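re: the backbone from monday

yeah here it is again, tokenized this time
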């Protein structure tokens, strides 16, 4: 077993998240890299002790890599926000990755650099050796399990997507057939998230052709650059549409569809080879959290 320490704002949510990551044995709330000894929550709360709310993640490196844990950490923070995550503000809510083995730094740095390139600006996430760590009081451990309605700056959707992402990866295993992978991915997304329509369109010459899906019968062909799907393909980016009636050129396969998200998939040549299209019968169903996790799911195909 190995330990890595993540400061991701309020530790309740960070602990709840990592305790559900496959290969993690235990996630413990505590206070790291401060200037006093045995700090109490109330002292840390004054923001004068230098401690950051931090979670010690104890993991089995044969089941989950440090690289994967670090990537997952970046899914639950805003790495450009200094001393603030969600509504929580103060140096105790700064973000950081603290390691105990200097040999681990290069691996973390690698993920960090990719995230920085994606963000297009220097990240404010600390990457430092762990100087000290004190476990937090019992009442702060598994707080969101004890208080399911409790405050958390992370959305409930985040935790649902983490489980969905891991389950899809497990389910697909080493199956090589892309259609089979798409079929079960659509089924799992639909079963868990209860969207109106979830499916894939495959790029075929200058058109997208309907692939595996769950939901009502849908349009079978969409032109390059046409509708939301064709736009995601042409512009090679995730397109989130809060109200399909406001999207010029939207293709209404069903009049019940109100909002939509389309995520491109890439082939070995880096070109868009398909899109994942999800429709909702409610307005404004999809946001950045959906985009982030559905992009991770699309990359599994
Ligand atoms: N509305 C999509 C077409 C596909 S259906 O939503 C299943 C679009 O405008 O691309």
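seq for it, each position gets an aa:
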């Amino acid at each position: 077993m190995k330990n890595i320490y993540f400061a991701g704002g309020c530790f309740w949510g960070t602990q709840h998240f990592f305790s559900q990551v496959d290969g993690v044995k235990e996630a413990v709330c505590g206070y790291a890299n401060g200037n006093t000894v045995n700090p109490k929550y109330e002292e840390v709360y004054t923001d004068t002790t230098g401690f950051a709310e931090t979670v010690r993640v104890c993991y089995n490196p044969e089941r989950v890599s440090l690289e994967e844990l670090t990537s997952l950490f970046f899914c639950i923070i805003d790495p450009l926000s200094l001393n603030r995550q969600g509504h929580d503000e103060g140096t105790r809510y700064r973000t950081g990755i603290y390691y105990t083995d200097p040999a681990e730094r290069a691996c973390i740095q690698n993920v960090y650099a990719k995230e920085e390139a994606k963000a297009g600006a220097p990240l404010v996430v600390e990457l430092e050796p762990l100087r000290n760590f004190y476990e937090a009081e019992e009442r702060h451990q598994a707080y969101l399990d004890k208080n399911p309605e409790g405050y958390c700056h992370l959305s409930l959707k985040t935790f649902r997507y983490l489980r969905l992402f891991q389950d899809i990866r497990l389910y697909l295993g080493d199956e090589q057939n892309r259609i089979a992978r798409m079929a079960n991915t659509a089924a799992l997304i639909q079963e868990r998230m209860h969207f109106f329509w979830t499916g894939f369109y495959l790029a075929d010459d200058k058109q997208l052709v309907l692939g595996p899906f769950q939901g009502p019968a849908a349009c079978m062909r969409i032109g390059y650059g046409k509708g939301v799907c064709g736009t995601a393909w042409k512009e090679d980016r995730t397109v989130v549409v809060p109200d399909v009636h406001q999207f010029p050129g939207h293709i209404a396969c069903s009049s019940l569809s109100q909002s939509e998200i389309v995520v491109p998939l890439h082939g070995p040549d880096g070109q868009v080879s398909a899109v994942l299209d999800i429709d909702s019968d409610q307005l404004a169903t999809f946001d950045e959290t959906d985009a982030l996790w559905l992009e991770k799911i699309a990359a599994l195909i």
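The longest helix spans residues 156-172. The chain has a mean pLDDT of 97.
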